[in-house]
């Protein structure tokens, strides 16, 4: 028995390829892709007008396939099985936001929108308008009424309700799609695209449309499966599960119990995932780093030094941050209420004025203090590394 894949493996979370060679090819192709994008936006407007003017027919679908090929969208159909026109319900796996448009180029069908409100946008994207999106019960009643009308087009439904990468598994099939009829015809949809992923989970349909017009081409391959009929006394849920397994088997993947709610929860957790904690200062070497900063800047509290060293991991960077005022702090002398006169005689380096002074005298004093502190720090480091300076008098003797 094949093990169910994880939900992560069923979603495409990265747009760009990971290998260096593919990234370089994408970079070299970018100027060409931008030119194609601009050209295809102009051609796409004409394709939209043609789709609005011509009535649904074989001639319209042929012209649309030719014109969409100019947009880089190519469709192919498997010859192993054909579309059974007596079946009014087709079910497919969900790969992109444009699956219903692509299948509509091959066979006459229409799809209801589960999220798009009725209006121009819903109509322009090729969805069947059934009123405002409501409960699944209302959707079922609306679709049953639509199918009861003479001359209505077959329905293309996506029981997964959300897109997946189609590589490892199918989402749990919603049973409402199988309550409309006792016979459905499944189809599997394979999408191929060079350079970048066909769809990235969480992106909007507008972004995906622009990427489709940017890439050289996108191939949609439709494979029809034989119609499936409901068994006697078989529930909608069991009927949906059986069709899911048949489709997954034909695609070489698994049918899973992951739902659209699980998918939404996973995306929510990934978007709100907290950043990794900063490394702690605990080793003897790190303690010596803290002591070195404390020797140069004794007025800085230890918690401030620990926090910045945990972030930078470098003594020189932490000292520079403290001297330049990038890390605000209150000196230990100020916290204990000592006067400025008493503290200035005991500290080897002066407390740096943080911020940008309002008066020129304050700004000059702050700059001078920083220079003195940096000079003192450099002198200390030289003494530790090379020892005291040796002088030579006029007779050549060291002193």
Summary?
The protein contains 14 helices and 10 strands. It has helices spanning 20-53, 58-70, 99-106, 120-124, 136-148, 205-214, 236-251, 260-271, 284-296, 302-312, 315-323, 332-335, 340-346, 360-386, and strands spanning 73-77, 89-92, 111-112, 127-128, 155-157, 169-170, 183-192, 218-224, 228-229, 254-255.
Topology:
Elements (H helix, E strand, L loop, with lengths): L19 H34 L4 H13 L2 E5 L11 E4 L6 H8 L4 E2 L7 H5 L2 E2 L7 H13 L6 E3 L11 E2 L12 E10 L12 H10 L3 E7 L3 E2 L6 H16 L2 E2 L4 H12 L12 H13 L5 H11 L2 H9 L8 H4 L4 H7 L13 H27 L13
Parallel strand pairs: 1-8, 2-5, 2-7, 3-4, 6-10
Antiparallel strand pairs: 7-8, 7-9
Average pLDDT rating = 80
The helix/strand series, from N terminus to C terminus, equals HHEEHEHEHEEEHEEHEHHHHHHH
Poorly predicted spans: 338-357
Number of strands: 10
Portion in helices: 40-55%
Q: From the helix content, strand content and strand pairing, which structural class follows?
A: alpha/beta
Give the strand content. 5-15%
How many helices? The count is 14
Our Rg estimate from Cα atoms comes to 34 Å
What general outline do the C-alpha atoms trace?
A: elongated
Distance between the termini: 87 Å
Q: Note the main sheet.
A: 6 strands, mixed
